[in-house]
Amino acid sequence: MTRKERWQTLLDLLVERGELEVEPAAEALGVSAATIRRDLDQLAEQQLLVRTRGGAVLHGVSYELPLRYRTSRRAAEKRRISETVAALIVPGEVIGLTGGTTTTEVARALAARPDLAAGSTGSPALTVVTNALNIAGELVIRPQFKIVLTGGVARPQSYELTGPLAMEVLGQLSVDTAVVGVDAFDPADGAATRHEDEAAMNRLLCERARRVVIAADSSKLGVRAFARIVSTDAVDVLVTDTGLSPSVAEAFEAAGVEVIRA
Are 129 and 94 in contact (CB under 8 A)? Predict the structure, then answer.
């Protein structure tokens, strides 16, 4: 297990339990207590937890893993999903990308497409509208892409810009395809996320799009989250992995959603 994987496991355990003790954590991860102490000290330096005499507790009342510590979860599934989503995009389109680990992989898959390596005379290969700072940062070095970044207030956990400034900019734009990352997508309750400010931005992006594509691994399907983004009938395509259960897939298809398993 690499240090990054160890740190992510420790943070996951901390979120699940609310507190960690060194010895049980060392046993769970199969490493020495000294290694766990060093890991906890380094995570505390990054203000991701608070060290206690015998272990660690959560940093603050509300907690969410920053994006950089969530990227390795279900990495293989997200990579297949992202490549499938990227293949749906037509050169010359205006696409919208929300923040999140899967949509970040979609951005990378688009950058790797050979047919998008150069734009035509006077027009970009793609115009990408996003409120995610990390996605804009990765794609802005691609001269064939035109990058439009909304303003707004940045959330450190997800690198997303939200709030009135972001809404004002996004409300003036139109996109061909919106690629939306979610925390949950249920056939009855629709697509949702944990935070109402992110839900509002994602909802507006969907409203400004001709086609809405949800990119989500199967662990997020058939479940609910706090803040709804859109109802299921507002979604055109769901791209997920082969772990999607047949019954949930049938429910999405009955609601008019095209389901693609990557």
Answer: yes
